[in-house]
């Protein structure tokens, strides 16, 4: 369990931007130490690299756990602890990213066929947005792929009978919602204000 949290705490966005640019990504954009902020405010290739590194980070506990023949609930909790580490990294003052790329990687490790469908969908959306300069949600191209992929992932998880996958996903989702609670409140508040008008 500690291994999973420490693995998540090794924040790729911070390492990469310090090594390549000599800067702390948390001082730019939305202050989020994740692939999207790197993509938007450092460089697109580095943002894509960080996404794949965080994706891989999410996969590792499931592959290690399956080799060790750990119980399903241990895999689910261990995988979600990677997201906890990514969002609240011990080594960086508990200020990390959102962990969505790591969740995608965890899904790939937990249920490879669902992971392949998800990965293909994200690539398709990202490519379409980039080629046609489209913005379905009003985000950057990488965020568009992540947002659409996350919605698609909810559908895939709910329509799947794998209890370990569901446990992992919803534990990770709780972490992400808690990490982004201010944004969640802001979204619901603005929606309520629009409805009142």
Short précis:
With 197 residues, this protein is an all-alpha fold. The protein has helices spanning 2-9, 12-21, 35-41, 44-67, 72-87, 100-110, 112-132, 141-158, 163-179, 181-196.
Which descriptors apply to this entry?
197 residues; mainly alpha; globular
SSE inventory with pairings:
Layout: H1 2-9, H2 12-21, H3 35-41, H4 44-67, H5 72-87, H6 100-110, H7 112-132, H8 141-158, H9 163-179, H10 181-196
Helix pairs in contact: 1-5, 2-4, 3-4, 4-5, 4-6, 5-6, 5-9, 6-7, 6-9, 7-8
Cα(first) to Cα(last) distance is: 49 Å
Number of helices: 10
Helix content: over 70%
Alpha-beta content class: mainly alpha
Q: Judging from the principal axes of the Cα atoms, what is the shape?
A: globular
Work out the radius of gyration.
Answer: 17 Å
Strand/helix succession = HHHHHHHHHH
The overall strand count is 0
Q: The biggest beta sheet, please?
A: none
Integer average pLDDT: 85
Low-confidence stretches: none
Q: DSSP strand (E) fraction?
A: under 5%
């Amino acid at each position: 369990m500690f291994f999973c949290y420490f693995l998540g705490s090794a924040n790729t966005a911070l390492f990469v931007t310090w090594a390549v640019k000599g800067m702390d990504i948390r001082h730019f954009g939305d202050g989020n130490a994740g692939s999207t902020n790197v993509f938007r405010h450092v460089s697109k290739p580095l943002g894509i690299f960080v996404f794949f590194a965080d994706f891989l980070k999410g996969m590792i506990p499931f592959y290690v756990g399956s080799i060790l023949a750990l119980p399903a609930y241990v895999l689910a909790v261990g995988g979600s602890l990677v997201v906890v580490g990514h969002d609240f990294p011990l080594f960086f003052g508990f200020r990390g990213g959102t962990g969505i790329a790591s969740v995608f990687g965890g899904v790939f490790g937990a249920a490879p066929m669902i992971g392949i469908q998800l990965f293909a969908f994200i690539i398709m959306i990202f490519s379409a947005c980039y080629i046609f300069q489209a913005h379905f949600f009003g985000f950057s191209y990488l965020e568009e792929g992540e947002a659409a992929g996350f919605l698609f992932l909810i559908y895939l998880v709910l329509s799947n009978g794998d209890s370990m996958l569901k446990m992992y996903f919803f534990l990770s989702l709780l972490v992400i919602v808690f990490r982004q609670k201010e944004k969640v409140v802001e979204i619901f508040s603005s929606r309520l204000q629009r409805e009142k008008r």
